[in-house]
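Milestone M4 deliverable, item 7.
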Amino acid sequence: MILYRPVGTAELELIKQSGYKGFPPRLSEQPIFYPVLNEKYAREIAEKWNVNSTPDRKGYVTKFEVDDAYISQFEIQTVGKSYHQELWIPAEELEDLNKHIVGSITVISTYTGE
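Output delivered:
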């Protein structure tokens, strides 16, 4: 399954440190990791949320693939409009998710608030 993850610069730096092979552990106040199912929704988050809530006013959209058999255990959540779909993966399962990423995480879009 192809998934998208909007991130800020700090999270992107940690992804780079992994060799673009995994996402960093969640912070204690972040109990879930929520990749989204479509690029349109990911772009909205990066442009409207990441740009406005990060110190450097930048947001990025990453794209990655996860093994279908593994990712199928998580239910699709619709959290707004019909295309606002995401998966809710418990933070403690993120390391396991990273092991099921196929290939590398890529940055497909960059947004700035400048």
